[in-house]
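Ex. 9. Protein: Protein-lysine N-trimethyltransferase SMYD5.
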Amino acid sequence: MAAPVDDMFSLCVDPCKVTSSVEVRFIDNVKGKGLFAKRSFKKGETIFVERPVVSAQFLWNSLYKYKACEYCLRALETAEENARRLSGNPALSLPHPELCRVRPELHQACPQCQVMYCSSECRQAAADQYHRVLCLGPSEDDPDHPINKLKDAWRSVHYPPETSSIMLMIKMVAVVKQAKDKAHWQKLFSHFCSRTANEEEEIAHKLLGEQFRGQLGLLHSLFRAALYDDHLSRWFVPEGFRSLFALVGTNGQGIGTSSLSQWVHACDALELPDQQREQLDSFIDQLYKDIDKETGEFLNCEGSGLYLLQSSCNHSCIPNAEASFPDSNFLLHLNALSDISPGQEICISYLDFCQRDRSRHSRHKILRENYLFVCSCSKCVSQMDEPDVTSEEEEEGEAEGETEGDEMEDEMTDV
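Predicted structure tokens for Protein-lysine N-trimethyltransferase SMYD5:
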């Protein structure tokens, strides 16, 4: 397995800095940069493991009691506690509780504000990087604190399902404010994808809806009141705030962690007699049905992070790599979906699995609206002669065709 990219800071100073396995290259003025393999990778192989520069739990997710480590987003509930809450059954007992990897005895709270961490290491890492600036002490739950006002304003304009978080912007500011070498960190953040003014407005519109200009103005005002710093004055003018907003909206990678999911995977790996296996599988199937009825699809601790290498990956509708979070924390594993040759570009899909199977026109519509580009991957090029209709229009057309066919059949029968 590939080792984590721990030399994050030297990697970030130079956007073309390489690891032993991959390198970032400039492609052209349209695609910008891309990530390329320096050696061959076999299907299923881990290409790299990367820590985020900053990460944060989504604010609604946190408000709804999805308990996660403030630093690494590891779930803090045991699998059994998680299953009880999600299923609405406080008496539920999970078989094989020893398979749960959550260790409550290691959890630590910030002594000033009581924010929780999964370990002393995470608490110290947060304190060293940004938490000394963001610790609210006894004001942690004070709705009138400027940072809490900003969080509440964000929740009021960006409802679940959440796709981004103003917390990433808050932490970016805190990291720079707390750092000794402020210019170093500002240069680091500048390596993430930037946009034109018109594109930034489109991203804001997508995240905030029709009233985005007024909402963006409110968020900017609260952001400035809560965090202003002379070293970052360009981030606090309206244009700079919009750019920061677009950076997070474009580059943020979703993160999902779950102690219950880890427990289920561990159960799947158990070697059991057939009858016990059937009983365990039946228990898990029923548990997920109960959770679906009680909670719906929101099962994980969810957040987002900024990853330097991963954000260098361009999109393809037939990707050769995929990001995952098997450690159930913020460590991103990029795995090969097919064999990759030295010098080949490593591409991920910005679309989910179902969206990838939709028509070329549908895929382009989603990518234009969310990422502001037109895909020219080999799959899209091969489908250039397809009609310019979305998958929904295709389905409606097929349905209309079936209706017309039925009517013709009826007419013929009448004759």
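Check your answer against this statement. The chain has a mean pLDDT of 86.
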